[in-house]
Every structure is written in C-alpha cells, then in structure tokens.
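input
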Amino acid sequence: MKLYARTHDNLPSTEIIAMRNAMWEKVSTRSHKPSKVFPFGPNADEVMLFGTVEFTFKEGGGSAVDWAARAKLVQEGGKVKMGFYQVYMDTAAMAAKK
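output
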C-alpha cells in the first residue's frame, strides 16, 4: 500500500516534482470516481472518501482499482476546496492488473 499526500510541507520542491513525475511515468490518464464520502468531526470539515480510480497506461490497456482518501476541507474565496488530501491505494493490486 502506498500513501500520497497533497501537502508536502517537509519536502524540497525537487522531491515533490520527482514524486509527481514518477506517478505519471507509466500512466497516460487517471480518473478518480468517489462512490462514498464520510464526513467526521464537529464541523464536518474532514472527510474520508472511497471510490475507484481508472488508469490508461502509456503502453496500452487500462485498469481500475479501489482507493480511499482523507481530506481536510477549507473555504477559500467562497468555495470549498481541499486544504489537505491523503490517498491510500493498494499498489500491489494495481501492479497485478498491468
């Protein structure tokens, strides 16, 4: 299982760029489709998500695997956005489908 976080406060920018490039090394498209969102906390500004991500590989073919995430929601300019986003994905299942 791999864990990816949207906020990278402790990483130098070169490591963030390298990580993001590696995530797209073999993948040409990605489509996250949440099927359930579970709010929690006194103001429900944190949520857990569950869904499926569909991949198209650069070498052809595709795959879909389940994923889960934790998100912290913030208001910015009258809109709700993700201030923090952390994904949990079974990368062994993804590798088996290649």
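quick obs: The beta strands are 2-5, 27-40, 46-57, 62-76, 79-89.
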